[in-house]
């Protein structure tokens, strides 16, 4: 194995021309550099330098080895730069999955930021999955990160070996038609007043459905379901059409259709957003960087959604 430190001295001698110049650049003494080059010759069994007058110059073998040294040292410099970038969390390829309303809002914002930032070497491969499937993909190793959610009235347990950090919380509101005349209590709707109303709900295989069912159950009734869809935009359009009422998280409302109003609830329900990863990867610098970016983007989107709701 060639000693890289000695190889660096040989390459510097070819570049600088004198032992004294090599010693100055490397903060060594000239005799020390000469001794190291002599040791390299013994280790390789080849003459690498020779006297030419008062100067020391490279032999043919020394010149060939020095030329290789330049390339090796350049590669080492690149490796050191990339290692530093990895330590800082500014480079790396990661796979991320997120539920749809997160994917089209703050996750998309982070992707846009990464693509337009010339200093970022972070690269994401994306997919959309509901939290149950996302956590299964995470534990199976199919993804590195999963943006999931949990409702205040539906506890979510993480699988063994997974950890999660909160990205923010948002209120769930009741969407009703503008013609709805049920009285409000302090500006908020009482779900019990919607016993017997037609309900538009998510599909029964996800926690969004459980959230609606439990919120109504706490109000003393089971919802009379007339439509099921996981697309909250469709839910709002059906409310606008007079089909029924729906409970919608704030982040899912891209645009409020004409004829629909959103009411806070007298018994609040919140949806908390989380970024989950596997325990061994929790301290990965790139994952920590992505976590900060996602938290900032989520906070901005959630603040904007609250402002829109207040304006309505």
TrEMBL record:
Task: Supply the Pfam families for this chain.
Answer: HTH_1, LysR_substrate
User: Residue limits of the HTH lysR-type domain?
Assistant: 2-59
Cellular component GO terms held in the UniProt record: protein-DNA complex
Keyword check for Membrane, yes or no: no
Query: Which UniProt keywords are given for this protein, alphabetically ordered?
Result: DNA-binding, Transcription, Transcription regulation
GO terms, molecular function: DNA binding; DNA-binding transcription factor activity
Q: Which domain of life is it from?
A: Bacteria
Name the family: Belongs to the LysR transcriptional regulatory family.
- What is the name listed in the Swiss-Prot or TrEMBL entry for this protein? DNA-binding transcriptional LysR family regulator
Q: Which organism is it from?
A: Herbiconiux flava
């Amino acid at each position: 194995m060639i000693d890289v430190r000695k190889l660096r001295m040989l390459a510097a001698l070819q570049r600088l021309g004198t032992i004294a110049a090599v010693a100055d650049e490397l903060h060594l003494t000239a005799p020390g550099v000469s001794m190291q080059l002599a040791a390299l010759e013994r280790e390789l069994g080849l003459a690498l330098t020779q006297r030419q007058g008062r100067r020391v110059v490279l032999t043919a073998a020394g010149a060939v080895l020095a030329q290789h040294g330049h390339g090796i040292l350049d590669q080492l410099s690149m490796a050191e730069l990339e290692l530093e970038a990895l330590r800082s969390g500014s480079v790396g390829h990661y796979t991320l999955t997120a539920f749809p309303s997160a994917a089209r809002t703050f996750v998309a914002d982070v992707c846009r930021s990464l693509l337009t930032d010339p200093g970022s070497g972070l690269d994401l491969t994306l997919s959309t999955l509901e939290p149950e499937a996302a956590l299964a993909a995470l534990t199976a190793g199919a993804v590195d990160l999963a943006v999931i959610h949990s409702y205040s009235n539906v506890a979510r347990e993480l699988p063994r070996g997974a950890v999660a950090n909160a990205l923010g919380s948002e209120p769930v509101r009741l969407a009703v038609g503008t013609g709805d005349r049920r009285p409000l209590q302090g500006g908020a709707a009482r779900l019990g007043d919607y016993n017997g109303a037609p309900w538009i709900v998510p599909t029964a295989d996800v926690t969004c459905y459980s959230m609606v069912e439990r919120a109504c159950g706490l109000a003393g009734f089971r919802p009379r379901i007339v439509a099921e869809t996981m697309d909250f935009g469709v839910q709002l359009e059906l409310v606008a059409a007079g089909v029924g009422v729906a409970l919608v998280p704030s982040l899912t409302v891209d645009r409020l259709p004409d004829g629909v109003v959103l009411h806070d609830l007298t018994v609040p329900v919140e949806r908390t957003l989380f970024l989950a990863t596997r325990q061994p990867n929790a301290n990965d610098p790139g994952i920590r960087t992505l976590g900060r970016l996602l938290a900032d983007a989520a906070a901005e989107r959630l603040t904007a959604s609250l402002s829109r709701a207040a304006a309505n």
